[in-house]
Automatic annotation (TrEMBL):
Any Gene Ontology biological process: transmembrane transport
Domain GAF positions: 625-776
Compositional bias segments (type: Low complexity): 771-786
Alphabetized Gene3D superfamilies for the sequence: 3.30.450.40
Organism of provenance: Paracoccus salipaludis
TM region positions: 21-40, 46-66, 73-96, 176-199, 238-266, 272-292, 299-317, 337-362
Keywords (A to Z) from UniProt: Cell membrane, Kinase, Membrane, Transferase, Transmembrane, Transmembrane helix, Transport
Membrane topology (UniProt): Multi-pass membrane protein
Name of protein: Histidine kinase
Start and end residues of each stretch annotated as Disordered: 766-792
Cellular component, GO, one term: plasma membrane
Keyword Transmembrane helix part of the UniProt annotation: yes
Family from the record: Belongs to the autoinducer-2 exporter (AI-2E) (TC 2.A.86) family.
Length: 792
């Protein structure tokens, strides 16, 4: 159905445009001032930056010593003494190696001359350009003869010799020492800065918080993340360099290259320099192998050793130790290396990655500087659904298909339809009226059809041959309504429910009569309209009149989920109203099972159930002290997450018992003297975490097909639920720590990890043993091979 075109969009007011121009100009001026300050203030800023980075490495050691009873002054002294001792030992070894190598170098001169002579002999002989070079030489001689004709040069040129004045020994010593004074002075300044930073770490943190200002929570998180990232980056970089240098030195010793300790140490130091460091560190041992061995075996073995170590370090050691990404893209790393090298020289190249990480963290936590995260970050600037939508607008469905396949490989087809596919259609429905032209609408329609067909072909459903459709998905009005039906039908088929798509049409008696819904148990009506009630009510009434036994589910994709309550469902005459693909699959599957007389049961692992029962038998749940401690844990969880209720549920046999709560709750009590709330067997809560023993979060219980029917949650006025497993060290789930709120509430990955940490403390209190380790939240993959592997 074609809708009338809307009026063209309005331009922003001139005053707004002028404000944007002024802000841009002010930003450019400020950026210029900052760059100039960095360049002209490098004498002070470089030692300060190096000192801060060294303090990031030594900070955890000092903190560990202070926690074990030493004063901060003594802890700093021990840390600095350890560093100086290590540097002094390495310096002594290197000095010995240099002295020994310098004594041996004159003996290699004959080998070098012989190899160069052999190479020159091999390069002699007729070459490709020899004739051209001879021609050029002949022409040059003839020109010189012509130019020189008629010139008289009777008096030969006289050689002039300039005798320098004698230099005093003091000036000679100063000439030798002056190049060393600047590095020594810089090292001394860095050393003083490191000591002062470690001694006054708390005061410096307070001053940085004052400078950042604004939200103290956000500023604290920014400092913690920057410190954590840089400390782990430098520490892991040191470990990687050492694990590279030790095999390097050992391999050179076995090959027979002199000064193997020197070259191993040089490799460990030079690898701190991005990009060029590994190349420079390889030049010296290769050159020495060339000078020592009359043949080529030593050179080839040295080159093979360096190549193997680079491959192992880059592809095994670094991913194993680093694990995740700094969040910096390759382009930003190269640009940052170029920028810092341009203003600070080689030291800037060494400091480029840590300094850029600091800028990324600042951009992440300070809204005014969020452009830094966009420019430097490795995560895509656009969400996946926006990228797919843009590719369709640009008439590039192949790229959209590639993005979709990447998502499906990480998650599943249904997850893709629910999170990305429906969002693309939702955005298309919004832009249909406001922004899209006719060509855009055609591209989106054709591109989505091609995308959905490719996904169906790549991920076919396995259904019994000739199975009659149990579900019919009917498009309400638009083309995107039909595409939503295609996604839902495919998701249902993958879930084992035969489903078919019916063509869209007007809600007339003739159209409804031609739908062929005999034998269909559930009918889903798909609407992306912002105001679908009239059309949905009319079509629902006609379908019920002709097929009264069919269940009708309304997919109101363009309506906010919190507006889909029971009153609206009853007013529309539907059996259920859904707002997402996952919810539709869940509710329709339950309706189909109900129609077939099947039931959904929670399947428990018998062995895990036996271990759980045996463990809980040894816990005296009627103990007042234990009950008080568990209530305290629940109260703390409710306060920390700012929810109305928190409960601790234990799974005992076939029952779930509330063994801790933030306040009194209604419910049936046990009759064995323990006075514990026992949940109805058809209304479990902790069973949500039994399948994979991972935290779960349901932002809106009304949108969950199973929990929306949970009687105890309705009695507790629950609208949102989050649960983390209470697990033993062997992974057996004893129960769950649950958060219950009376409003729609979402929890992110970090909050779920914190909830899991509190659940681990509950497990330790119940069993008296160490709990299972808390799982790390999944980190989004960097975009298209642009993430450097460094600690998160």
């Amino acid at each position: 159905m074609i809708l009338p075109l809307p009026p063209s969009g309005t331009e922003p007011p001139p005053q707004s445009q002028q404000t944007d121009v002024v802000r841009l100009a002010a930003g450019l001026v400020i950026a210029t001032i900052i760059v100039a300050a960095l360049y002209f203030g490098q004498v002070v800023l470089i030692p300060l930056a190096v000192a801060f980075l060294i303090s990031f490495v030594l900070g955890p050691l000092v903190h560990w010593l202070v926690r074990h009873g030493l004063s901060r002054l003594l802890a700093v002294a021990l840390a600095m003494g350890l560093v100086l001792a290590v540097l002094g030992g390495l310096g002594t070894l290197v000095a010995v190696q240099v002295q020994s190598l310098s004594a041996q170098l004159p003996t290699y001169q004959s080998t070098i001359r012989a190899k160069i002579k052999d190479l020159g002999a091999q390069m002699e002989g007729p070459g490709i350009l020899e004739g051209a070079l001879q021609t050029v030489d002949t022409v040059q001689k003839e020109v010189a003869e012509v130019v020189g004709e008629g010139e008289e040069n009777d008096v030969p040129p006289q050689r002039v010799r300039v005798i320098p004045e004698p230099v005093s020994p003091f000036k000679t010593a100063m000439l030798w020492l002056s190049p060393l004074l600047s590095p020594i002075a810089t090292a001394g300044i860095v050393l003083v800065f490191v000591v002062l930073i470690l001694l006054d770490q708390g005061d410096l943190r307070d001053r940085l918080l004052r400078i950042l200002g604004g939200n103290i929570y956000r500023s604290t998180d920014a400092l913690e993340e920057a410190s954590k990232r840089i400390s782990k980056y430098l520490l892991m970089q040191l470990v990687v360099n050492v694990t590279y240098a030790l095999p390097m030195a050992l391999g050179l010793w076995l090959i027979g290259v002199p000064g193997f300790i020197l070259w191993g140490t040089l490799a460990a130091v030079m690898r701190f320099i991005p990009y060029v460091g590994p190349i420079l560190s390889a030049v010296f041992p290769l050159s020495l192998a060339f000078a020592v061995d009359p043949g080529w075996n030593m050179v080839l073995m040295t080159a093979a050793l360096i190549l193997v170590l680079e491959l192992v370090s880059n592809n095994i050691i670094e991913p194993l130790l680093y694990g995740t990404s700094t969040g910096l893209s390759v382009l930003s790393l190269i640009a940052a290396a170029t920028f810092w090298t341009a203003i600070w020289g080689p030291i800037g190249l060494v400091l480029s990655t840590p300094l850029t990480v600091c800028l990324l963290v600042v951009g992440r936590y300070i809204p005014q500087l969020s452009i830094l995260e966009t420019l430097l970050g490795s995560s895509p600037a656009l969400s996946r659904q926006t990228r797919i939508y843009q590719r369709l607008i640009a008439n590039d469905p192949d790229d959209a298909i590639d993005i979709a396949e990447d998502v499906i490989e990480e998650e599943s087809v249904t997850e893709f339809y629910n999170d990305e596919g429906m969002e693309v259609l939702r955005q298309a429905s919004i832009d249909y009226i406001n922004n899209a032209r006719a060509e855009h609408r055609l591209r989106i329609a054709n591109g989505m059809d091609e995308l959905l067909e490719e996904i169906r072909d790549a991920h076919p459903a396995t259904l019994p041959e000739g199975a009659a459709p149990r579900v019919a998905c009917i498009a309400g009005k638009w083309e995107i309504d039909r595409q939503a039906c295609e996604m839902l039908a495919h998701s249902l088929q993958l879930d084992g429910v035969p489903a078919a798509v019916r063509a869209a049409g007007t809600a007339t008696s003739r159209y409804v009569a031609g739908l062929e819904l005999e034998g269909v148990q559930v009918v889903l009506l798909s609407f992306f309209s912002r105001e679908p009630d009239a059309g949905a009510r009319n079509l629902t009434r006609r379908i019920r009149a002709r097929w009264p036994r069919a269940k009708v589910v309304l997919g109101l994709w363009g309506v906010a989920s919190d507006e889909l309550d029971d009153r609206r469902r009853e007013a529309l005459g539907a059996d259920a109203v859904v707002a997402s693909i996952k919810e539709a699959v869940g509710r329709i599957s339950l309706l189909v099972r109900d129609a077939e007389g099947a039931s959904v049961e929670v399947v428990q692992d018998p062995q895990a159930a036996a271990v759980r029962n045996e463990t809980l038998k040894g816990v005296r749940l009627e103990n007042p002290e234990l009950r008080e401690d568990l209530d305290d844990y629940a109260i703390r969880a409710a306060d920390v997450f700012d929810v109305r209720t928190a409960v601790i549920v234990a799974i005992e046999g076939e029952n779930e018992l509330v063994i801790g709560a933030s306040h009194d709750l209604p419910g049936a009590r046990t009759s064995d003297g323990r006075d514990l709330i026992v949940l109805p067997q058809d209304s479990p809560i902790a069973a949500q975490v039994l399948s994979d023993a991972k935290p779960v979060a349901v932002a809106d219980i009304e949108r969950d097909p199973v929990l929306s029917e949970n009687a105890i949650l309705h009695r507790w006025s629950a609208r949102a639920l989050a649960a983390a497993p209470v697990r033993k060290a062997d992974g057996v789930v004893l129960g769950a720590l649950c958060l219950i709120h009376d409003q729609v509430r979402e929890l992110d990955d970090e909050e779920l990890q914190l909830l899991e940490t509190l659940a681990a403390e509950v497990a330790e209190r119940l069993t008296g043993e160490d709990a299972a380790p808390v799982s790390e939240p999944e980190v989004p993959a960097p975009s298209a091979s642009v993430g450097q592997q460094v600690p998160d």
